[in-house]
């Protein structure tokens, strides 16, 4: 097994058995994670490839590229692996979160506002799983994902990155 | 406005032009269909009480009546992206199709690159390039916010661009939204003319010529290249396209544009341009109450 090269994008191996780089997630593990945790159907990702650059940062891409490739960005970041609890990105959740059925916490307008501003809030009523949740709110007749939150001990912590936080 | 005097002979109703240049520009936004339909985004704007007016020529462009367009739900969700109305023209003229390979040679901060991705239903490959690393971080931020998964971002000089890193050796279409003297942005940046001088125009036109030539070379025969700037200077517009016509295998083609505009010039100062340059579009601020833009559409021909 070789080490991860942080300077370039490498396409994820299909499965565990094809892995050549230590600690690298496989495409199957990534898709399984999105299905197991959030109920996102695996078919959602049929036309996408997954890539790793930097230790554990996974990117999702719809275009053509050889592996490896040294460029600035390929599609968008979607997931942080190589840590005990994998963590989806807020931008990924806003793009693909509408396909999720599990671990989606629905917020009232004021709570959504606090979440978008990056604030943590006590939400004792949540009786689902702890850990990373998709926060969402009702917008124009549909549930619209806001971003990723971390739920522990009755508190929802907004994981919306600084540059994406807004006072609405 | 002094530098604009040189355009008096070519602009109809020059006084209206100058008056429009003095007026500040309102907020426009593009509806990002990667994240939601036009109908739904309009409904979200209604729900928030943000008044808007949809552009006649493009249902995906809205003029917003709010002082803080960045602090709306639609913006937070990436359903809208602040983008000047005329700046949404070049991608529409390029008309990329889902699944194609498209090059945006001067892409940062990404308004048009993400619009190209949206026009392609975010399927295919949009190679978004810029030579300025600082501006590339803004491009990446916008691409992620808008959920564009079909973008590959590169940092290189477009004039000598190599496709070696990709598994294909030509593009179906290319956009050259060139660095320019930005005269047409005067309504947004009142100091746009502060450093205006003909020397700058002539040096930037050299860069523009190099980028456009490379774009034609990198595009397949029968493919399309769109050249655009946000400036009025013919040295940066018709003269650049003329240079490509003389040195590369391409021709200027017609296109429909639902905005009022004037045709490209066939002469300027002592220089004459190919008649086909009249097929290009000059959009002046007083014609549609927007910023200014130049757009030319080229078809790549056999050698
Ligand atoms: C008019 S701006 C592009 C705006 C962009 N198309 C958009 O819609 O957001 C021109 C860009 O060209 C870039 N540029 C200047 N010279 C370049 C070169 N030689 N190669 C590639 N990019 C260049 C600048 O850094 C700048 O970001």
From TrEMBL, chain A:
Q: Which domain of life is it from?
A: Archaea
DUF7122 domain location is 3-75
Pfam families xrefs: DUF7122
InterPro entries per UniProt: DUF7122 (IPR055546)
Location of region: Disordered: 1-23
Which protein, by its recorded name, is this?
DUF7122 domain-containing protein
UniProtKB/TrEMBL annotation, chain B:
**NCBIfam families, alphabetized:** nop2p
Key words of the record:
Methyltransferase, RNA-binding, S-adenosyl-L-methionine, Transferase
**UniProt organism field:** Natronorubrum sulfidifaciens JCM 14089
Q: Which SUPFAM superfamilies match?
A: S-adenosyl-L-methionine-dependent methyltransferases (SSF53335)
Enzyme active site? 230
Instruction: Spell out the family assignment given in the record's similarity comment.
Output: Belongs to the class I-like SAM-binding methyltransferase superfamily. RsmB/NOP family.
Q: Which PROSITE patterns match?
A: SAM_MT_RSMB_NOP (PS51686)
> Listed GO molecular functions?
RNA binding; tRNA (cytidine-5-)-methyltransferase activity
Q: Which Pfam families match?
A: Methyltr_RsmB-F
> Any keyword Zinc-finger?
no
Record protein name field: RNA methylase, NOL1/NOP2/sun family protein
Instruction: Give a yes or no for keyword RNA-binding in this entry.
Output: yes
Its GO biological process annotations read: tRNA methylation
Do you know which InterPro entries this protein is assigned to? MeTrfase_RsmB-F_NOP2_cat, MeTrfase_RsmB-F_NOP2_dom, Nop2p, RCMT, SAM-dependent_MTases_sf
Q: What does the entry list as the binding residues for S-adenosyl-L-methionine?
A: 106-112, 130, 157, 177
Name all SAM-dependent MTase RsmB/NOP-type domain ranges.
17-301
